[in-house]
Amino acid sequence: MALEKPDLSGSTAFITGTTRGIGKAIALALAEQGCNVVSTGKTSENDDYGEERDLEGSIEETAREVEARGAEALPIQLNIRDEDQVEAAAEQAIDHFGEVNIVINNASAIQLIPTEQLPPNRFDLMTDVNVRGTYLVCRAFADHLKSIDRDSWVLTNAPPIEVDRSPGSGPYAWSKLGMTFVTLSLAGELSGHDVGCNAFWPVTAIDTRATRHFGLGTEDDWRTPEIVSDTVLEILNRDPAEFTGNALYDEDLLRDAGLEDFAEYNLTEGDPEPLSAMISNPDYSRPDEE
């Protein structure tokens, strides 16, 4: 069964971390539905950051691919740990497009390392990028989202809060759960303004540069980023006044939308294990396995 996708013509999405991976997939999926995109991240063709870090992709490259799909794009180089940069980026995006009605917190730092092995500066980085960055972006757009008439959303790439521990990856899991906490709290704060605030999270590991860099399994364990972008589209196909305050897994939402076979997202035959869900919930099992 094909998923019904929303018409996003006239919408504008501010997305953090669009240079590659999940963020880029979301940006391009939204552009396919007519949504303008503010492409943000640290890797820009205007400096040598990408060359120095041996990274592929840039905010400008994603912007060009958005425009190739018929939508308008605005690339903004952004360090989401910097309050002034976040405020300026929000102002620039709103000034350029008139309004921004979709805000997606995707940018994230990852270090899947036990507490005793994680250097304090890496802990600070994850806290600043994941929790503080989500807070800064939400804060920068909250008043604007309350003021516009179009369906408005704050969506965050972070897991449901189901457990109080994650042995082996506690600092990272804590920082991701903090992103969820900020988003779900905002749902209550904006409940009278028809702004849907939700967190979404893949059950399986996703084939991204980070996944490969950290050796999180093999291709048998991964799905393509498109399962996450389809999850975002499914959320945007709903009523933000009704669908808010949720932290959900991609499989659960897509099953609810009528999708029964996930093979199109798998890199190899057979459904991958739920490695991503188990980062924040070591006891996770799929509903049909319980």
TrEMBL record:
Cross-referenced InterPro entries: HSDL2, NAD(P)-bd_dom_sf, SDR_fam
Stored Gene3D superfamilies: NAD(P)-binding Rossmann-like Domain (3.40.50.720)
Annotated region (Disordered), positions in chain: 267-290
SUPFAM superfamilies: NAD(P)-binding Rossmann-fold domains
Protein name: Short chain dehydrogenase
Origin species: Natrarchaeobaculum aegyptiacum
